[in-house]
Amino acid sequence: MAPAPSILKQVKVALYTSPVIAALAMTPIAIMGRYSFSRYFAAIFFSMLVVIFLWGINIFLWYAGMRLTTYRTLVSVLVSVGLAMLVATTLFPYHSSKPGAFHINFHFHLIMFFVINIVIIILQNLTITREKNAAIETENQELKLKNMEATNQQLKQQIQPHFLFNSLSTLKSLMSTSPADAEDYLVRLSEFLRSSLSSHILNTTSLADELHLAVNYLEMQKIRFGEALQFIIGIPEEITQAWQLPTFSLQMLAENAIKHNILTLDSPLTITISWSEGMITVSNNLQKKVTEAKGTGTGLANLRERHRLLSGEDIIIEETASSFSVHIKALKHENSDH
Length: 338
Prior knowledge:
Low-confidence stretches: 94-102
Strand order of the largest sheet: 2-4-5-7-6
Mean pLDDT: 79
Helix content: 55-70%
CATH architecture of the largest domain: 2-Layer Sandwich
Strand content: 5-15%
Number of helices: 9
Radius of gyration: 33 Å
Oligomer: single chain
CATH topology of the largest domain: Heat Shock Protein 90
Largest sheet: 5 strands, mixed
Number of domains: 2
């Protein structure tokens, strides 16, 4: 199995920071005369090995599941202290008749290993945080792309010749039979197209705007289909500005219901948009067409993906012998465009 991206990034950072950390640790000691400059490069090389080893310990702790920074730091510090004790007592015993020399040597290694390990932990956390931020940015870009794709698809469905042909045909028919309805239809059509075009740059819109767009669409279709189409809006007006939904979600679900079901005076299609505990439900009685309307099938899948990216949760689709429902979790206004 290939290593996780975070591990690969940490290993890269470890490799190019280890020589720098080692040089920064050994240079002041050489200047203070702790050892001769003839041993300077050997000391840096040994220190670099120690730094790489400490990096390896910290990367392993992260890989082993210690993602909580405080717990991982505590374990890492304990390991580095143990390593410092091992080095001070076995590899570099300070043989001197000077009183307290061994304790000075021991404390020196203890402090040096502790400081180096803390620097490594800071660099590791910065690396992990930076990669998380990059992943979030990538996800945001993916969301924007999905939103643009959804918008383009929606606009094609709305402004395509078939849609305009039906709208203009309905308008022409109404002008001769019911001028008042024709005027109402024209106003709703222009408002629907205006809203469609002005909402294309947004990931989400307020529940009020989504309802306005959906109702305009349903009112136009009701003028076209008459009593064969019924719709019920069961959402309190006072909550519509406090919540948001992915752009075009309600209208797309209403359009799907009309596209895939039979609408007759004897068997009218009823579309219900309701609210319950933070969930928007769009449901309709199920009376599928014998010959299903052809489509790409991407509308619902696209809505599912956009909603997952925005909220971290899936939409819920329920189908029974008599009904079809889609449940969408509404988004809090302040978190709607994160």
